[in-house]
Design goal:
Blueprint (H helix, E strand, L loop, with lengths): L5 E2 L3 E3 L5 E3 L7 E2 L10 E3 L4 E3 L4 E2 L1 E6 L13 E6 L13 H4 L9 E2 L2 H10 L4 E4 L8 H13 L3 E6 L5 H7 L5 E5 L5 H8 L4 H13 L3 E8 L7 H15 L5 E5 L14 H13 L5 E4 L4 H4 L1 E2 L6 E6 L2 E5 L30 E3 L1 H8 L1
Parallel strand pairs: 9-11, 11-12, 12-13, 13-14, 14-15, 15-16
Antiparallel strand pairs: 1-6, 2-3, 3-4, 5-6, 7-10, 8-9, 8-20, 17-18, 18-19
Helix pairs in contact: 2-3, 2-10, 7-8
Length: 364
């Protein structure tokens, strides 16, 4: 399969003959034939092109809670896919075979935005998620998929590190209904040494989503022992979230497992996740979760007013549902922030790989 080059708009020419990509804060300066750190945006004929438009590393139906999104269409299936490459270089990447790929051979599935949207509809998915690698680097493709989905009443989800510049951020999130933003740590040192990036642009994305969009978003923090899991850092991070984003933004603390370049650290103890959750609640956050561990209490949603369990979760399976059709506590009628559609879905914890070629034949 030949690589496809799709013209883009977020770049400008430099005086030295190179051109600068303006999508993310990395702002790669590229000579002709060169690629950015993400590997998928390249200088071809003195313009930046996206080389992976219409190609994916694979499609799979997941529970929406796996993104993780706990307040967005609970219990429903989401058609998930990614491409190749990434604009960060996280040493702990758990999808490194995709995000760090320099081989286009992994892009086995080719599908137009319209085919993806039609496949999602036929498969009963209420949303499509751009995940596995960051949609920032393939935002033109993701935006077109989102638009095709909206025409069929299907929502679009961005699973992202939030490492994006202001103008493309504004344009991209006009197409998005929900997002999970990976706040990888809360120090510049962690971002610089472990992610090869910066913290400030991620915080700017979070504030932008809160203040200037209607996108439903939740935050994930992967806790790595000895690197970003101190009580001091969790105190500062959760205080910042409460002050700048408000008490109702869901926050997920998830357990690290050794992978990629960080193999010398142990998995995150359950006690560390519980500590972080307790600090966040103490600092005023109302919806704080633990993930990548079996913790029904830390996975479930509670009414911040009366304390009743609203949505019980056992891993990705919903075990309790005490919301009215309007998304309120059925005991004290306090609204639960989020996007709800009456009764919950019943997808459960299933993960179902999907071959888009079947849908190309059936739906074209």
């Amino acid at each position: 399969m030949e690589n496809k080059s799709f013209p883009t708009q977020y770049w400008h020419a430099l005086n030295d003959g190179r051109i600068r990509c303006d999508v993310c804060p990395r702002e790669c300066k590229l000579g002709i034939g060169k690629r950015g750190l993400c590997f998928v945006r390249a200088n071809e004929n003195n313009q930046i092109v996206l080389t992976t438009y219409g190609r994916s590393s694979g499609f799979c139906i997941d529970p929406i809670e796996k993104k993780p999104l706990n307040h967005f269409l609970p219990g429903t299936p989401v058609l998930s896919f990614g491409t190749a490459g990434c604009n960060l270089s996280c040493h702990f990447c758990q999808n490194w075979d995709i995000s760090k790929s320099r081989e286009f051979d992994i892009l086995a599935d080719e599908a137009s935005p319209q085919i993806i949207a039609k496949a999602a509809m036929e498969l009963g998915c209420q949303s499509v998620a751009f995940t596995y690698n960051d949609p920032t680097i393939f935002l033109e493709y993701a935006s077109d998929v989102a638009d095709a989905c909206h025409e069929l009443g299907i929502k679009a989800v961005s699973v992202t590190a939030g490492y994006i510049n202001a103008k493309p951020r504004e344009d991209f999130y006009k197409h998005i209904d929900a997002a999970n933003v990976d706040l990888k740590g809360f120090t510049d040192d962690f971002y610089k040494k472990i992610c090869v990036g910066e913290l400030a642009p991620v915080l700017e994305t979070l504030v932008y989503l809160k203040k200037f969009t209607s996108v439903w978003f939740e935050i994930t923090n992967l806790m790595i022992p000895g690197l970003n899991d101190s009580e001091k850092e969790i105190e500062e991070m959760t205080q910042w979230i409460a002050a700048n984003l408000g008490p109702s933004v869901p926050l997920h603390f998830t357990a690290f497992h050794p992978d990629y370049k960080i193999l010398d650290r142990p998995p995150t103890p359950a006690a560390t996740l519980a500590m972080a959750r307790n600090i966040a609640i103490k600092n005023g956050l109302r919806y704080v979760y633990t993930g990548n561990v079996h913790d029904k209490t830390g996975s479930s949603t509670y009414c911040h007013s009366c304390g009743q369990i609203l949505i019980g979760r056992d891993w990705y399976v919903l075990s309790d549902w005490n919301l009215t059709s309007q998304g309120c506590c059925n005991k004290c009628h306090t609204p639960l922030p989020g996007v709800f559609n009456g009764l919950p879905g019943d997808w459960g914890s299933k993960r179902l790989p999907v071959n888009l070629k079947n849908f190309q034949q059936l739906l074209v």
